[in-house]
């Protein structure tokens, strides 16, 4: 049987192509790739405000002065390099133990950790919401042969609302800020950030970096459209990610606007109708809102305290 010269060339080219495609994979498989298991505080595998890691989100992993782009590959928090060149290998590091830090802004990727953090003003989309959820894993020592665990902490703060409506109507939007009469008390969206570092005197290594508000920057405030999450029981849930405030920074008033799908609008002011939230890094608070007979109420009184639940953000 004759085989044409053209077919022979085609077969040879195909074989060469397959070899070129697999050589990189074969080299990688023969080396010891660093694949990380991600956790949230206390090694719990929870990350995003929805409670699970999001497949496809990026992690910047820093070893020494080198940063490589990793990607989350499973909802339980596995992360590996996006390609061969963006993967750490023990053979390249030449050490039996290394110091690692890492950070994540969802699908927004920063090779260099930003010194100014700005949360998104429209957090109604999932990508903007998770991009506002700045996660940082402080420096940890990882030893060859031991589990490759990175523990992340939310560096921002989360403010949420559980909205109970007697009538069968959905909430269209929840907006923080935007009242021209209360413009000076819009939520902060921008903050100067420095990563946590070890105290050389005490050896204490904080979980959270330092956030400083620059009041000379006119762009530090803005209106935030909250994100709609899964209902909690019968309550419709909306959350917004804000920059955290130190004890020297606070709100005096913070307006909140709720619009229903039938066009009905409600508003109230944190600091007048109910106590202001404590906007600490890594914390989240939920206010309970009740709407009945076209009237809105925020449960609780000044004496009894706000109708708000404070909890760790894991």
Verbal overview:
The chain has 3 helices and 22 strands. The protein is mainly beta. The chain has 2 domains: 31-114 and 123-154, Fimbrillin-like (Immunoglobulin-like, Sandwich), CATH 2.60.40; 157-312, Immunoglobulin-like, CATH 2.60.40. The protein has helices spanning 5-29, 90-93, 126-132, and strands at residues 36-40, 58-63, 66-72, 78-81, 97-104, 116-118, 135-143, 149-154, 157-165, 171-176, 190-194, 210-212, 224-225, 227-228, 236-242, 254-260, 265-270, 283-292, 295-298, 300-301, 305-306, 308-312. A hairpin with a 5-residue loop joins strand 3 and strand 4. It has a 7-stranded mixed beta barrel. Strands 9, 14, 15, 18, 19 and 22 form a 6-stranded mixed sheet that branches. The N and C termini lie far apart (69 Å). 11% of the residues lie in helices and 38% in strands.
């Amino acid at each position: 049987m004759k085989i044409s010269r053209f077919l022979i060339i085609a077969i040879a080219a195909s074989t060469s192509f397959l070899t070129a495609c697999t050589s990189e994979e074969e080299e990688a498989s023969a080396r010891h790739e660093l694949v990380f298991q991600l956790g949230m505080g206390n090694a719990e595998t929870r990350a995003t405000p929805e409670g699970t890691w999001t497949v496809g989100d990026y992690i910047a992993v820093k070893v020494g002065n080198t940063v490589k782009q990793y990607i989350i590959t499973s909802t339980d928090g596995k992360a590996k390099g996006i390609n061969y060149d963006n993967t750490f290998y023990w053979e390249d590091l030449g050490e039996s133990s290394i110091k690692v830090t890492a950070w994540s802004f969802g699908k927004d990727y920063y090779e260099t950790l930003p010194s100014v953090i700005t949360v998104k003003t429209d957090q109604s989309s999932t990508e903007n919401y998770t991009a506002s959820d700045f996660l940082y894993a402080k420096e940890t020592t990882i030893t060859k042969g031991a589990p490759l665990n990175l523990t992340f902490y939310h560096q921002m703060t989360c403010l949420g609302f559980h909205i109970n409506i007697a009538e069968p109507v959905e909430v269209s939007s929840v907006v923080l800020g935007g009242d021209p009469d209360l413009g000076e008390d819009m939520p902060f969206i921008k903050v100067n950030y420095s990563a946590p570092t070890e105290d050389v005197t005490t050896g204490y290594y904080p979980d959270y970096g330092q956030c400083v508000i620059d009041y000379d920057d006119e762009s530090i405030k803005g209106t935030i459209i909250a994100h709609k999450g899964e209902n909690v029981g019968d309550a419709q849930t909306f959350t917004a990610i804000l920059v955290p405030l130190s004890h020297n920074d606070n709100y005096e008033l913070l307006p909140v606007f709720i619009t229903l799908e039938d066009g009905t609008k409600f508003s109230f002011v944190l600091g007048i109708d109910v106590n202001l939230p404590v906007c600490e890094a890594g914390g989240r608070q939920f206010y309970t809102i009740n709407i009945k007979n076209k009237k809105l109420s925020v449960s609780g009184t000044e004496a009894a305290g706000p109708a708000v639940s404070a909890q760790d953000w894991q």
